[in-house]
Amino acid sequence: MARGTILLVGKKKIIEDRSELERLAPVMKAPLKRHVFVCTGKSCSKVGAGEVKAEFERILEAKGIRQGKESKGRNPMGEIVLTDCGSVGFCSIGPAVLVYPEGVWYAQVQPEDVREIVEEHLEKGNVVERLALIDLSTK
Amino acid sequence: MARGTILLVGKKKIIEDRSELERLAPVMKAPLKRHVFVCTGKSCSKVGAGEVKAEFERILEAKGIRQGKESKGRNPMGEIVLTDCGSVGFCSIGPAVLVYPEGVWYAQVQPEDVREIVEEHLEKGNVVERLALIDLSTK
User: Fold this and answer.
1) What ipTM, to 2 d.p.?
2) To probe the interface with B, which of A7, A8, A11, A14 has the most B CB atoms within 10 Å?
3) Which of A22, A38, A44, B93 is the most exposed, having the fewest neighbouring CB atoms within 10 Å of its CB?
4) A102 neighbourhood in chain B, CB within 8 Å
C-alpha cells in the first residue's frame, strides 16, 4: 500500500496524503455532531466525575452513537465523541460536563442527569438549562 | 455572606444561586472566546504533546489571554481556555489539538506550529488549514 507523501521536518515524519491520514484516523470519516468532555480533574473526580463519565459511556454505547472502535463497543460512524478533559475552573461546582460546538458548560452534573443531557442536548440540540452555566457561543 | 439557595439531592448539595456560583467559579464571568484542547493521551504524549501544551501555555500566558487564576500566571478575564483532553482517535497522527467552538481538529502539531495557531486562529479566527483535518461545524 502506498504510504502517501511524507515530508521530513526535523526528526518528525509529517504525513500529507489525505487517504493515508483517513486510514490512520478513521474518525475523520465519521459524521461527527458533538463532542462531550467530562472533567476528570481532582475536584470533579472527588465528587463523582468518574460515575458521570461511566454513565455517558453506558448510554451512548447502548444507543450506538459513541464514535470509536467497534472492538471497544463503539461505532466508527458514531456522531458523538466522548472524552475526559482537565480542569476548567468549575472545581467547586463539579462535576463539569462540556458540550461543543455549542460551548455549553454544565455544572454539578449527577449520573442521573446524564440521560437528559444525551436525549435532549446531544440528540435533539436542546440545552438542559437547569444545569447550564456558561454558553460560550453567546459570550 | 449569604450562601445562596442550597437544595439537598440525595447526599449532594446543589447550589442554585447564580452569584454564589460565580463566586465559586470566576470563569463564569470571563469573556471566553475559544477553548483549546491538547490531547495528552498515550500516543500523543509519546510524540510530544507535552511540549506542544507547554508552548501554548507559554505563549498564551505571555500574551495575557489565558483564562485562569492570577496566582498561576493566568488572567481571570482571559478569552482563551486551555486544557488537556483524552484520546480523540488521532493516535497515529498526533499530537492532536482541538479548537472549539469552531470544532477544528489539528493533527501532527509541533511546538513550532503553536504560535501560528494562537495568532491566526485563536486571535483572528483564521483556521490554520495546513494542519486542520476535521471541521466539526461543517459535518
Assistant:
1) 0.90
2) A14
3) A22
4) 101
Task: Confirm or reject contact between A134 and chain B (CB < 8 A).
Answer: yes
Report yes or no: B62 at the A interface, CB cutoff 8 Å.
no
pTM comes to 0.91
Q: How many CA atoms lie within 13 A of A37 on its CB side?
A: 30
Pairing mode of beta strands B34-39, B80-85: parallel
Question: Which residues on A lie below 8 Å from B102 (Cβ)?
Answer: 101
Q: Which residues contact B85 (CB under 8 A, 6 or more apart)?
A: A37, A83, A84, A85, A86, B37, B38, B39, B40, B98
